[in-house]
TrEMBL record:
It holds the Pfam family Myb_DNA-bind_6. Coiled coil: none annotated. GO terms for biological process: regulation of DNA-templated transcription. One of its GO terms (cellular component) is nucleus. InterPro entries: Homeodomain-like_sf, Myb_dom, MYB_TF, SANT/Myb. Residues 74-124, 125-175, 176-226 form the Myb-like domain. SUPFAM superfamilies: Homeodomain-like (SSF46689). Transmembrane segments: none annotated. Residues 73-128, 133-175, 176-230 form the HTH myb-type domain. This is Uncharacterized protein.
Length: 242
């Protein structure tokens, strides 16, 4: 049996020997291969280098893959830009295939039917279909409503140059004698605001509960005053003169 003093001495020697193995001085003094063989480590210099090479290869592959993805994304963005040659081809194909977009897209490289249709609408915007009403037409419209009622398609046929919707909008928003000329009240504003929060911008439904307030008037009232006053939002279509 060892005495306590002998045990302490042996324990201290073990600590010193372990510290020597792991100390930076021991590593600096010996080459790595000698250090490995002396202390029977589970790896060697070749394995370390192979592991490092593998990591480098994986990193290089990832960088190359990222560069490829970036290049593909840039190519996609370039493809989205239409040029004059494509526009001319699109006009020719539209006439040839009579607006059949699936057929047109077959002759437009790297373009699908939806892209061709959207581009066509952009380079050929619809003509202004607004109708400038004369006093004679207004009088005629009021008389037709009195005779036929609100049968807008029949009324439109009596004009020949307007649609049923144009006749309806003109009468309801401008010519109807029941339209209120008085200023808007607080109660009307609150009703419009409540209905907008509940049902959204369903102006026809809202106007049906406001006698003398057509749908177009209700919509204009909301965007020009109520939205700014009670919701704290500016009208994006309002023109501010300096």
């Amino acid at each position: 049996m060892f005495s306590n003093t002998a045990k302490d001495s042996i324990f201290q020697d073990e600590i010193v020997s372990q510290e020597n193995i792991l100390s930076p001085q021991s590593i600096e003094m010996e080459p790595f291969s000698d250090f490995e063989s002396n202390y029977h480590l589970s790896f060697n210099t070749k394995e370390c280098l192979q592991f490092q090479d593998k990591e480098d290869q994986e990193m290089n592959y990832k960088i190359k893959e990222d560069d490829t993805s970036l290049q593909q994304e840039q190519n996609k963005r370039k493809q989205k830009i239409w040029n004059d040659e494509e526009d001319q081809r699109l006009r020719y194909l539209f006439v040839q295939f009579q607006g059949k977009w699936n057929e047109i897209a077959k002759h437009m490289p790297q373009r699908n039917a939806s892209q061709c249709q959207q581009r066509w609408r952009r380079i050929n915007p619809p003509k202004d279909t607004r109708h400038i009403w004369t006093q004679e037409e207004d009088d005629k419209l009021k008389q037709l409503v009195q005779d036929l009622g609100k049968q807008w398609m029949k009324i439109a046929k009596c004009f020949g140059n307007i649609t049923g919707k144009q006749a309806r909008d003109r009468f309801i928003n401008k010519l109807d004698q029941s339209i209120k000329k008085q200023p808007w009240t607080y109660e009307e504003d609150m009703f419009i605001l409540d209905q907008y929060i509940i049902n959204g911008p369903r102006w026809t439904k809202i106007s049906n509960h406001l006698n003398g307030r057509p749908e177009n008037h209700v919509k204009n009232r909301f965007y020009s005053f109520i939205k700014r006053k009670y919701l704290g939002e500016q009208n994006r279509y309002q023109i501010i003169y300096s």
